[in-house]
Amino acid sequence: MKMISQRVKDISYAIREIAAVASEVAKSGKKIYHLNIGDPVIYDFKMPNYISQALADASFNGKNYYVDSLGAPELREGISKSLKKSYNINVNSEDVLVTSGVTEAIFFLIASLLENKKELLIPGPSYPLYINYAKFFDGVPVEYELDETNNWDPNIDDLRKKINDKTQAILICSPNNPTGVMYSEKMIKEIIDLAGEYNLIIFSDEIYDQITYEKPFTCPANLSKDVPLIGLNGFSKSHLATGWRLGYMYYHDPENKLAELKANVAKLARARLSASSIAQYAAVEILKNPGTHTKEMVSKLKERRDYSYTRLRKIEGITCVKPNGAFYLFPKIDLNEFKKWKDDKEFTIDLLKTTGICGVYGSGFGEYGKNHFRLTFLPRVDILKEVYNSLEDFLSKTN
Ligand SMILES: Cc1ncc(COP(=O)(O)O)c(C=O)c1O
Question: Is the CB of 236 under 6 A from ligand 1?
């Protein structure tokens, strides 16, 4: 028998791992409420026909080949124009690299920058992929605190303290997964200034840029002037195309400090041939005609966010910051009040087994996620009503 590498054994992804427990629970006939996975497509949000048609057309028109490893030129051009139009940032098409989702972009960047325990500063709580890939490539993910008492805004003193000569980059994720909250513009500026002071790169995960409720997304590249920044985005969430696996990264690098990184990331991209060609040609059509589906989704989500937040606030022993972006709530559970559970994982699994509500335990999002759990607010309000009635009932029977 071959030995399995330790780096693969060490991978942990709570969002999917809880789904395995849910499948076991479902075997007993219990109805499962899947509030664990951030995929709008499995609810009542559907990609418009003209986009599905564009995907089919790409295939019928014979575009089923390995496309340029860096991305179809038309798509790179379209992304460059759309960045200019949406956020007034100047990125040439050669500064865009098309990837198989933001997931692959994160993989490329971390693989290219980390080794020998070099460090990546990531938000805490954190999207688990950053932690996994940093460790996988023998780097160290270092979490800087997002301060729950200050609307989950980054704690800049904590961030500053954690910079040292091993630090390579600072990752920003706003709107954030798992908190659902956007960083304030002031904090984004401060983080960029800090990166400038210490000669660090900013990675900006912008996958939720179009899913905001009260105020529009602040684009960090607009604030970064000469500080090199790599933006990560894609079609999964805003265009209801999670299964297409299509994303991109763009280099905002006015002083050309990232030339070496860019050349080496391109080598990695060539080694994997290309991202999906037909998805890329269909995405060209999306950028030409962005449609109204994203706005419609956000308006439905706002109602679901408001409903969920109002219900959560009324539950004793639970507190929650109101999310202003993405589609997650990240409530805190007072484990001193509910003595039944020793930690957030035990609580989340008991909740799932007893009520069928499948959330994700907060410690799956790193150290700062402890004592929390994450719920999406993607389902319809009538389903959310069942969820919150049941959650309320479950907790009231506990004390
Ligand atoms: C913050 C964040 N980044 C990246 C991703 C993955 O995006 P993609 O589907 O483009 O790989 C997700 C998915 O949930 C996410 O929440």
Answer: yes
Please report the pLDDT score of residue 14 as a whole number.
Answer: 76
Closest-CA residue to 326 (of 212, 215, 183): 212
> What confidence score (pLDDT) does residue 1 get?
67
**Cβ contact 89:221 at 8 Å:** yes
d(CA 351, CA 347): 6
6-46+293-396: CATH topology: Aspartate Aminotransferase, domain 1 (3.90.1150)
Q: What is the pLDDT of residues 253-263, one digit of tens each?
A: 999 999 999 99
pLDDT of residue 399: 61
Per the CB < 8 A criterion, the answer to whether 123 and 169 are in contact is no
Would you list the DSSP string of 328-384? EE--EE-TTT-TT-SSHHHHHHHHHHHH-EE-EEGGGG-GGGTTBEEEE--S-HHHH
- Cα–Cα dist 353/359, whole Å: 11
Measured between alpha carbons, how far is 139 from 102 in angstroms, rounded to an integer? Answer: 19
103 Cβ inside 6 Å of ligand 1: yes
DSSP string across 210-229: T-BSSSPPP-HHHH-TTS-E
Query: b/e map of 230-244 (b: 16 or more CB within 10 Å)?
Result: bbbbbbbbbbbbbeb
- Give, for ligand 1, the residue of 79, 177, 249 to mutate: max count of ligand atoms closer than 8 Å to Cβ: 177
Does ligand 1 have an atom closer than 6 angstroms to the CB of 101? yes
How far, in Å, CA of 328 to CA of 211, rounded? 11
Ligand 1 atom nearest 234 alpha carbon = 10
Q: Which residue has the tokens 């990675």?
A: 203
Whole-structure pTM value = 0.96
Number of helices (H), then strands (E), belonging to the chain: the values are 14, 15
Structural domain boundaries of the chain? Answer: 6-46+293-396, 49-288
Q: Strand pairing of 357-358 and 33-34?
A: parallel
Coil, helix or strand at residue 237:
coil
The stretches in the chain having pLDDT less than 50 are: none
Place of tokens 């951030």: 38
Task: Please tell me the CATH code under which domain 49-288 is placed.
Answer: 3.40.640.10
